[in-house]
Design a protein that fits this description.
Layout: H1 2-25, H2 29-41, H3 45-55, H4 65-78, H5 82-95, H6 102-115, H7 125-140, H8 147-174, H9 178-191, H10 198-214, H11 218-238, H12 245-265
């Protein structure tokens, strides 16, 4: 009995594949639309996409075009072709501004940009673009059912930019480019005032300022020591029980001792 069931199953699969291949090669666009829609509803996005891509140009201006363009964009999204899906959903929104699918298509276009955002260690151009697209969606649909999800995506993407900026500034500290590190941490603290990395940023800014001052030529040393002391005060004022307290206090003691030399000279 099992043998016959396997044979029947194989026959059904082969018949299905045969129908798909025949339809794919056919010139009539009607069967392609019908089979493509069936495959789309079954979640067979790759197969449906191949059929849709053949007939999209032929349906422009026809009543079925709106439905076809929507399904075509959805197949791209389902296949995780996010560059293509963002484009196709945008195209759908531009072509059918009165469609009942407009809000969903606009959201999925923005979400496609979000899905293209890389890990924080890589270039964040696409992350910034995704934030712009998501914010545009929120501006256009402030009462959307997707509002919470879109807002969450923006917070996540902002977190990537925040982490990227912090790691760049810290890397300057690691390679002893202290001027660049101080400037980068200044920018970071200005751009991300509520960052969870604020304490770390203020410490490493102080550390960079300390090392720059200690290694400075004589004519610049006093000014840089005073600047380093200011950064120490900023850290302690902002985080009186900072995890870096012991290290920061030791560096500050050295700064105070160094500054005594200048008060004596005066």
């Amino acid at each position: 009995m099992k043998k016959y069931l396997y044979i029947l199953f194989a026959f059904i699969v082969l018949s299905s594949c045969s129908e798909y291949q025949q339809t794919l090669k056919a010139t009539d666009i009607g069967p392609k639309f019908k089979l493509g829609e069936q495959l789309y509803n079954e979640g067979e996005y790759s197969k449906a996409n191949r059929l849709f891509s053949q007939i999209v140009p032929s349906y422009r201006g026809k009543p079925q075009a709106e439905k076809l363009m929507y399904m075509y964009a959805q197949t791209q999204y389902g296949m995780k072709n996010y560059i293509a899906s963002s484009y196709q959903f945008e195209r759908f929104a531009d072509s059918y501004p009165k469609s009942e699918k407009l809000e969903e298509a606009s959201f999925l276009s923005a979400k496609s940009y979000y899905m293209r955002s890389p890990v924080f260690s890589k270039d964040q151009t696409e992350t910034k673009e995704a934030i712009e697209k998501l914010q545009l969606f929120i501006n256009l649909f402030p009462k959307s059912e997707y509002l919470a999800e879109a807002s969450g995506f923006i917070r996540e993407l902002d977190g990537k930019l925040e982490r990227k900026a912090f790691e760049i500034a810290k890397q300057y500290n690691t390679i002893s480019d202290y001027k660049a590190s101080i400037k980068s941490f200044d920018n970071f603290l200005f751009q991300f005032p509520g960052s969870s990395l604020r304490e770390d940023a203020m410490y490493y800014r102080f550390d960079s300022s300390f090392n720059l001052a200690i290694r400075s030529v004589e004519r610049k040393k006093e000014e840089r020591l005073e600047s380093a002391e200011k950064y120490y005060r900023d850290l302690i004022t902002g985080f009186s029980e900072t995890q870096y307290l012991d290290r920061a206090d030791k560096m500050h003691e050295e700064i105070v001792e160094e500054l005594k030399n200048y008060s004596t000279k005066s």
